[in-house]
Write a structure and sequence with these properties.
heterodimer; A: about 475 residues; mainly alpha; 2 domains; about 5% strand; B: about 250 residues; alpha/beta; Rossmann fold; six-stranded mixed beta sheet; four-stranded antiparallel beta sheet; 9 helices; about 40% helix
Chain lengths: ~475, ~250
C-alpha cells in the first residue's frame, strides 16, 4: 500500500508543470551560484597572492628594520564558494606593527558597495530562501488539496491506513523534491573539480555535511507544509498561513532576535569606548603632571637656600636619577593607560560575544537561522572568522615584533659608535626576509567545524520531527468530507 | 458470485449528531442484501450522504452501527472498506494522470494488484469510455467521463458492496441508460448496491428497494413489488410533505 501511494506521489510531482519550472530554476540557480562562487574565489586568490607579493616587495625595499611595517592578508577559503557568510563583510588585510593592535580592514563590500546592497547569492541563500519557498509551494495543498479535489475521499474509501497515507505523502514529496536537487549539486561539485579548486578531504566532508544540513532544512519546510495542509481545510488558507509563517521564520525572527538581543544586552558604542579611553588618558596625564609638579616642588624646596652653583651641581648629580624616575613614571602611566584600553577592548569584545550569543540563541527559533548558522560554521565564514583571524594576527604580531626587535638590536650593536641607532649596517642592501616569520592563516579541522553545528542540526531535526508529528496527528483526525 | 438474501449492508439504529447539535441522521435502519439495489431518495440535507459517509467510516456514528458484511465499520474500518467500492457524485481524479494511470492507482489502493492494462481497458470500454480517451490526461474530461472512470474503478475493485452517491448526476441520458444497464449487471453478479439519488425515474427503474429520506429520517421504504402500480413521484412528494407537516 505504501509503495502504491509513494509511487503516485512521485508521479504526481514529476508530472506537474510546477515541478519542471521549479526544478529548472533551482538547477540554474545552484549551478550559477557555484560558478560565480568559483570565479569569485579565483579572483580573491589572485588578489591575495598579488597583495602578499607586493607586501613582501615593499618590506624588501626597506633598508632598515626600524622602518619596517608588515601587512598580512586573510587567505580566501575554498568554502566561500558555497557559503559566503560574512566573508565579504570583514576586512581582508591588517597592518602588523609594534604600536597598533592588528585590525582587519578593507572588506570586499567596503570597496564594492554595490555588492553590499544586493549581496552575494550563494548556495545557502538558495536553500534558505528559494528552496524553502518551493517546498511550501509543493506541499501547501498536499492534504487539503486532495480533499478539495475529492481524490482524498476516493483514496480513503479503500482500506488505506491513514498513517501510511501521510507517511507516503511525506516520503513521496521528500524524495520527489530532494533527489532531483542532488543532480545540480553533483554537477556543481564536478564544476569545482574541473575548475581546480583546491579542496582537501576535510573540505569535501564539510561540503557533504553542508548538503546534508541543507536537505534537513528543506525537509523541515516539506513537513511544515504538510502540517499546515493537514491542519486546514482549504488550500488557499494553508498557502496564506504558510506564506506568513515563512516570512516570519525566514525574514522576521532572525532580525527581531538581533534587535531584541541589542536591547537586552547592549554593547558599548565605539564612540563611547573611545571617549572612556580618552577620559582615562586625560585623567592619568593630569595626575602624572600633578605628580611631576609636586615632585619638582619638593626638589625646588630641597634646593632652597642653595647658591646657583650648588643648585647646578645638585641638579647635575641627580639628573640621571630624575630622568630615570621620570621615564619610569611615564612608562607606568603609559602601561596603565594601555592596560585600561586593553581591558575596555576586552570588555567590549565580551559584550559583543554576549550579545551575539543571545541573538543567535533567540534567532534559533527560526529554522532559517539555525540552518544559516550551521552553514557558516561548517564553512568557517561565520562571525567568529574575524576574531579567529585577529587572534591569529595578534599572535603573529608578537612573533613579528620580537623578531624585528632582535634584528633592530643586532643593527644597533653593529652600528654602535658609527652612526646613531636606527641605521642599517648596509643602507643600500635590501633586508633579508628569509628568516622573517610568516603568518599562518587559521584553518579549522572538520571536527572543529562540525562541533558548533551539532546544536543547530539538532534544532533542525527537532523542528522537522515536530512538524511531521503534527502533520501525522492532524491527518489521523482529518475530516475527509 | 454471492448467494442471494445475505445481508451485506446494514444500518442499525444509526444516528449522527454533529458537534454543532445538528441531527444529520436519525435512527436509520436499512438492509441491503447481496444482489440487491437499494435507492435512497431525498432532497438536499436528507441524510443520504451522511449514511454513506458512515458506511465509509469518514465519520463516527453517534449511536447505532453501520455494518458491512457483518463488520461494524467504526470498529474495524479497514476490514469493512475492503468490502466496499465507492463512487461519489462528482468523481474527481488526478488531472495530470491519464485515465489508465488513475484507474491503476485507485484499483491498486483497493488491493487489486494483479490486473493488466488490458483488463483496465476492457472495463473502461464496458463502462462506455471510448478507447481513445484511455491514454489521455484527465484534464479535459467531462463529468460523465470522470464518472465512468470512477465506476470502472469500483468494478475493478470487485467489492461485495458498492456505495453510489448521486451516480447519475451529470450523466447524459445515454450514459445514464448505460449506467442503469451496468447496475443490473452488477446486481446479477451479486453485488449489494446502496445508491443515493434524486432521480426518481432511475430509482424506480433499477432499485429492488426504494427508501425516502427526509431530515435525517427514513420516512418510507418500499420494495419493487410494493411499488408496482404506484406513482413513485407522487409518493415522494406526499411523504416529504406529510413528514414536513408532522415535524411542523
Amino acid at each position: 500500500m505504501f509503495s502504491v501511494l509513494f509511487e503516485k506521489e512521485l508521479k504526481s510531482i514529476f508530472l506537474s508543470p510546477k515541478f519542471v519550472a521549479t526544478f529548472g530554476v533551482c538547477s540554474l540557480l545552484i549551478l550559477l551560484s557555484v560558478f560565480v562562487g568559483i570565479q569569485e574565489y579565483k579572483n580573491e586568490v589572485d588578489q591575495y597572492n598579488t597583495a602578499v607579493q607586493l607586501s613582501e616587495q615593499q618590506m624588501m625595499g626597506e633598508s632598515s628594520w626600524w622602518g619596517i611595517e608588515n601587512v598580512v592578508f586573510r587567505k580566501p577559503s575554498v568554502m566561500q564558494v558555497f557559503v559566503s557568510g560574512v566573508n565579504n563583510d570583514i576586512g581582508r588585510s591588517a597592518e602588523i606593527s609594534t604600536w597598533v593592535e592588528p585590525k582587519l580592514e578593507n572588506s570586499n563590500y567596503s570597496s564594492d558597495t554595490l555588492f553590499a546592497v544586493f549581496r552575494f547569492v550563494d548556495l545557502t541563500f538558495i536553500f534558505q530562501v528559494v528552496l524553502s519557498l518551493f517546498a511550501i509551494l509543493f506541499t501547501y495543498d498536499a492534504i487539503n488539496g486532495e480533499r478539495e479535489r475529492g481524490t482524498l475521499k476516493l483514496a480513503l474509501s479503500n482500506a488505506v491506513p491513514r498513517a501510511q497515507y501521510v507517511l507516503a505523502k511525506f516520503a513521496g514529496s521528500w524524495v520527489g523534491l530532494t533527489v532531483p536537487l542532488i543532480i545540480p549539486l553533483l554537477v556543481a561539485m564536478l564544476m569545482v573539480m574541473i575548475f581546480g579548486i583546491p579542496m582537501d578531504g576535510g573540505d569535501w566532508a564539510r561540503v557533504l555535511t553542508l548538503i546534508g544540513s541543507s536537505i534537513l532544512y528543506f525537509t523541515f519546510f516539506i513537513a511544515f507544509g504538510l502540517l499546515v495542509s493537514a491542519f486546514t481545510k482549504r488550500s488557499a488558507v494553508s498557502f496564506l498561513v504558510l506564506l506568513v509563517a515563512w516570512v516570519c521564520l525566514v525574514l522576521i525572527v532572525p532580525r527581531a532576535a538581533t534587535m531584541t538581543a541589542g536591547q537586552i544586552a547592549p554593547v558599548t558604542s565605539v564612540a563611547e569606548l573611545e571617549s572612556q579611553k580618552d577620559r582615562f588618558r586625560t585623567d592619568r596625564w593630569r595626575a602624572y603632571g600633578m605628580q611631576r609638579s609636586k615632585l619638582w616642588e619638593e626638589r625646588r624646596t630641597a634646593m632652597e637656600g642653595m647658591t646657583e652653583q650648588e643648585r647646578n651641581d645638585y641638579m647635575a648629580a641627580n639628573r640621571q636619577a630624575w630622568d630615570e624616575e621620570e621615564a619610569t613614571a611615564r612608562d607606568a602611566t603609559m602601561d596603565e593607560m594601555n592596560e585600561h584600553s586593553r581591558k575596555l577592548d576586552e570588555e567590549l569584545r565580551n559584550e559583543k560575544m554576549a550579545q551575539e550569543k543571545l541573538a543567535f540563541t533567540l534567532s534559533r527559533f527560526s529554522p532559517a537561522s539555525a540552518y544559516k548558522l550551521t552553514a557558516m560554521n561548517l564553512a568557517d565564514t561565520g562571525t567568529s572568522l574575524k576574531n579567529e583571524y585577529e587572534d591569529a594576527m595578534k599572535d603573529y604580531r608578537t612573533t613579528f615584533t620580537q623578531f624585528v626587535e632582535t634584528k633592530r638590536e643586532e643593527d644597533r650593536r653593529a652600528n654602535r659608535g658609527r652612526r646613531g641607532p636606527g641605521s642599517n649596517a648596509n643602507d643600500d642592501e635590501p633586508l633579508d626576509l628569509a628568516e622573517l616569520p610568516r603568518f599562518d592563516a587559521p584553518k579549522q579541522t572538520y571536527k572543529e567545524a562540525v562541533e558548533p553545528t551539532i546544536i543547530d542540526l539538532g534544532i533542525l531535526s527537532v523542528f522537522s520531527v515536530l512538524a511531521f508529528a503534527g502533520a501525522f496527528l492532524s491527518f489521523i483526525r482529518y475530516d475527509v468530507r | 458470485m454471492e448467494s442471494k438474501n445475505q445481508p451485506m449492508l446494514q444500518a442499525i439504529d444509526l444516528s449522527k449528531r454533529y458537534e454543532d447539535g445538528h441531527l444529520a441522521l436519525d435512527n436509520l435502519n436499512l438492509t441491503v442484501e447481496t444482489g440487491q439495489v437499494y435507492a435512497m431518495l431525498g432532497g438536499n440535507g436528507a441524510g443520504k450522504t451522511t449514511a454513506i459517509n458512515l458506511f465509509l467510516n469518514f465519520i463516527e456514528p453517534t449511536t447505532g452501527q453501520a455494518v458491512v458484511d457483518g463488520i461494524v465499520t467504526h470498529e474495524e474500518p479497514l476490514k469493512a472498506k475492503e468490502r466496499i467500492a465507492y463512487v461519489s457524485e462528482n468523481v474527481m481524479l488526478y488531472p495530470n494522470f491519464t485515465a489508465l494511470q488513475n484507474v491503476d492507482f485507485f484499483v491498486k489502493l483497493g488491493g487489486k494488484t494483479k490486473y493488466t492494462k488490458e483488463d483496465y481497458r476492457k472495463v473502461l470500454l464496458r463502462v462506455g469510455l471510448q478507447e481513445e480517451a484511455h491514454d489521455r490526461r484527465l484534464k479535459g474530461f467531462s463529468k460523465g467521463m470522470r464518472q465512468k472512470c470512477g465506476i470502472a474503478i469500483a468494478i475493478l475493485k470487485d467489492a461485495k458492496a458498492i456505495l453510489l452517491d448521486e451516480p447519475t448526476s451529470g450523466l447524459d441520458p445515454k450514459a445514464a441508460f448505460e449506467f442503469i444497464h451496468l447496475l443490473n449487471t452488477l446486481r446479477e453478479e451479486g453485488k449489494a448496491i446502496l445508491m443515493s439519488t434524486h432521480d426518481i425515474f432511475r430509482a424506480k427503474e433499477v432499485a429492488d428497494i426504494v427508501g425516502i429520506m427526509n431530515l435525517g429520517k427514513l420516512v418510507m421504504q418500499r420494495t419493487k413489488d410494493e411499488l408496482v402500480g404506484e406513482d413513485l413521484e407522487k409518493l415522494y412528494v406526499e411523504f416529504m410533505a406529510g413528514y414536513m407537516d408532522e415535524v411542523a
